[in-house]
Specification:
The protein is an alpha/beta fold and about 270 residues long. It is about 35% helix and about 10% strand. The chain has 12 helices and 7 strands.
Length: about 270
């Protein structure tokens, strides 16, 4: 499996996100990551090798997009749907590619509006140490499915010696701005709202109605990795969802078909099998 682009960076490339953070700060806009980079802070084993996704206020999207292009470092490019499960809905999300030898040449910036992600900037968020988690972890420890899986919680993993923060940091220490992810319940609400919206417009736009791959995939991953098919895990999370989504999420979780655990030869030998 290919390494994440951040693993190819050198020590003197620390601070590769500083110019973006400065633009957002000048607009009094927080740094909120969504999609794969955020999901890795939520305990989901997904890859963030093609995009860094940022959540942007609707009314500030044009200004922030203009500011990034005005640096002369970026050009607008099409979404690469190979990394979006061929989900055509994502085509409307602006994607910027950095010129030349820079991490954001390989790992493009995608700017999700509040409307497109069905998620508001000004809502509950959780601060994370960096843009990327080197190892998947769960920054909201209280959702840790420790009864069904090895601990995913951030504090537990750090205590066990796991390396979570990449060796090359996204921001320079003297310029560092806080980085946030939405809370897990808000993220799940956004995906369920997206699914409902897309199903509702299928008669007006058949292509859009069928392109439900990405949010559905993310919902299934939440169920899989947080063990939301278990009643005890549902009890932690379902009450924190928007009321409109609770029954839908319970139904999806209860209908989830978990693949049987394939034990390694070593683990079988350890058990004398």
């Amino acid at each position: 499996m290919a390494q994440h682009p951040t693993m190819n960076l050198k020590g003197d490339e620390s601070g590769y996100f500083d110019h973006v953070a400065t633009i957002l700060a000048a607009r009094h806009h927080p740094i909120i990551i969504v999609e794969e980079a955020a999901l890795r802070w939520m305990g989901l084993r997904v890859s963030s090798k093609a995009n860094l996704d940022l959540l942007i206020r609707d009314q500030q999207m044009d200004d922030i997009l203009h500011d990034l292009l005005a640096t002369g470092r970026y050009e607008l490019v099409d979404q690469d749907l190979r990394y979006r499960l061929s989900d055509r809905f994502v085509k409307q999300v602006p994607r910027l590619q950095h010129f030349g030898d820079h991490i954001f040449n390989e790992l493009c910036l995608s700017l999700w509006s509040e409307t497109n992600h069905m998620l508001t900037v000004d809502g509950p968020v959780v601060e994370v140490p960096d843009l990327f988690a080197l190892n998947t972890t769960l920054i909201q420890d209280r959702f840790d499915p420790t009864d069904f899986n090895a601990a995913l919680g951030y504090n537990a993993m750090v205590a066990q010696g796991y390396h979570i923060i990449p060796p090359v940091l996204a921001q320079s220490p003297d310029l560092k701005k806080p980085v946030f992810v939405p809370t897990i319940p808000r993220m799940i609400d956004s995906y369920l709202d997206q699914l409902r919206y897309r199903a509702g417009v299928k008669d007006k736009d058949p292509n859009l109605g069928r392109s439900r791959a990405l949010p559905g995939y993310n919902i299934r991953n939440f169920i899989r990795y947080l063990h939301l098919d278990q009643v005890s895990q549902q009890a932690k999370l379902i009450p924190e969802l928007a009321e409109r989504n609770r029954a839908d999420m319970v139904l999806r979780a209860n209908n989830f078909k978990r693949k049987p655990l394939v034990k390694s030869a070593k683990s079988l030998l350890d058990q004398g099998l």
